[in-house]
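Worked example

This section walks through a single chain of length 90. The input is the sequence exactly as stored; nothing has been trimmed or padded.
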Amino acid sequence: MTRVVFVGAHGALAAALGGAAFAGPLPEEAVAEAIDGLGVPFPPRVDGPEPGDTVVDTDAWGLPEPVGLCLEGVRELRAVLEERVSSLPR
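Given that input, the structure is written out below as tokens.
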């Protein structure tokens, strides 16, 4: 089975929305709270993609950095990410 790994500034939140893994640093507090508010398990953090993984670079989406956003700002960002993640091929 191919594993999806999200990377980039929005990797953790996108992974939570897509039921996938993420590579990179742990998210800031507001992003972690937004993930907690989804009612899904916190996504697994991996050291990096492995051969055969499908890698989705969220930086390529050109969205604002989540660092420094208030919880409401992260919720708005989450709505955009939900749309992008749901449109990815499965």
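What to look for: The chain has a mean pLDDT of 90.
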